[in-house]
């Protein structure tokens, strides 16, 4: 789901025919970026390069077919290829870069946060109960087959709080990248102009002065909306580089929670291992038993 949604937004026409093969190669690429950089056959890093080569080959194939066709496509790739109204002509390499960046950024983030929300809700029945009530109230306003819409989404205040609290405790993006545009001094240290800096924002999320009892899952703290816009909240980054997929990501997770909560109950099977550092993951998967609600 987390990869398919942006994939379809980028390549609507091809989404059905090439998605499965594409995902296999893209998964290799993602795995490669999160592995030790040892490029010899058999390592994840090596598979990552092969995955990237195949992803590029497939994307180039789609671009060539589209250029040879007279049909106009109204998806993201269509706009990138037409490049209408833009002062700057993107090269093919830049278009490929845009597509891979969007797919990559929206994939792990959304899927891992959805998984961790399921886990935290399992461990916190009061939060689960309140969340379910919010979603059942939405369903009561609608016919059973009606999909949720933007107004329903905007009414999901507690859902948003659950997603922020999940993202705080299970920080998926550990920091943000920046480049100094001029020499600057910080706490007595001089950072020269042009340096690339990785601003490690993860620990801010566990600061007890900012978030009292920081290791407790407490979605209620986010109901005060100003918390989300504090200048120390870097869950989605900040400034002009703020995550452009922020609302899309929250919509995806909210929609998943809506249908999951209103259709099913779930319980944990066995004891699942969750690792939070250096990246959040369930190395053997999060195993749950699902039954009809
Ligand atoms: C829970 C979900 C998500 C989280 C926690 C998240 C977090 C972040 C963070 C922290 C950054 C760095 C921002 C900065 O440098 O200030 C970022 C960048 C980015 N995100 Fe997200 N993201 C999420 C979902 C998505 C989705 C769904 C998409 C698109 C489909 C997306 C696309 C991007 C892109 C393209 C960038 C790079 C922006 C740039 O460099 O200017 N993200 N995200």
TrEMBL record:
Known cofactor(s): heme
MF terms (GO), sorted A to Z: heme binding; iron ion binding; monooxygenase activity; oxidoreductase activity, acting on paired donors, with incorporation or reduction of molecular oxygen
Pfam families listed in its UniProt record: p450
GO biological process: brassinosteroid biosynthetic process; brassinosteroid homeostasis; sterol metabolic process
Membrane topology designation: Single-pass membrane protein
Tagged with keyword Transmembrane helix: yes
Sites where the protein binds heme: 243
Top-level division of the source organism's lineage: Eukaryota
UniProt keyword Phosphoprotein, yes or no: no
PROSITE patterns: CYTOCHROME_P450
Family: Belongs to the cytochrome P450 family.
Protein known as: Uncharacterized protein
């Amino acid at each position: 789901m987390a990869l398919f949604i942006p994939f379809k937004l980028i390549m609507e026409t091809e989404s059905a025919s090439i998605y499965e093969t594409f995902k296999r190669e893209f998964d290799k690429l993602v795995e490669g970026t999160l592995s030790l950089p040892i490029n010899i056959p058999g390592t994840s890093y090596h598979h990552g390069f092969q995955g990237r080569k195949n992803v590029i080959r497939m994307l180039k194939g789609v671009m060539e077919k589209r250029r040879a066709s007279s049909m106009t496509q109204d998806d993201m790739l269509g706009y990138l290829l037409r490049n209408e109204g833009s002062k700057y002509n993107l090269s093919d390499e830049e278009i490929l870069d845009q597509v891979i960046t969007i797919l990559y950024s929206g994939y792990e983030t959304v899927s891992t946060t959805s998984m961790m929300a399921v886990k935290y809700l399992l461990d916190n029945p009061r939060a689960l109960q309140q969340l379910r009530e919010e979603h059942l109230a939405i369903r009561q306003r609608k016919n059973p087959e009606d999909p949720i819409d933007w107004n329903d989404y905007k009414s999901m205040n507690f859902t948003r709080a659950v997603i922020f609290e999940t993202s705080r405790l299970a920080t998926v993006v550990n920091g943000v990248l920046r480049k100094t545009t001029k020499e600057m001094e910080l706490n007595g240290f001089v950072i020269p102009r042009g340096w690339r800096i990785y601003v490690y924002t993860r620990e801010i999320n566990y600061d007890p002065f900012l978030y009292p009892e920081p290791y407790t899952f407490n979605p209620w703290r986010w109901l005060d909306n100003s918390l989300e816009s504090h200048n120390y909240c870097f869950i989605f980054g900040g400034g002009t580089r703020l995550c452009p997929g922020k609302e899309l990501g929250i919509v995806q997770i909210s929609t998943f929670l809506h249908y999951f909560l209103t259709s099913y109950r779930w319980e944990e099977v066995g004891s699942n291992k969750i690792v939070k550092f250096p990246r959040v993951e369930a190395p053997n998967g999060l195993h749950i038993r699902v039954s009809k609600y």
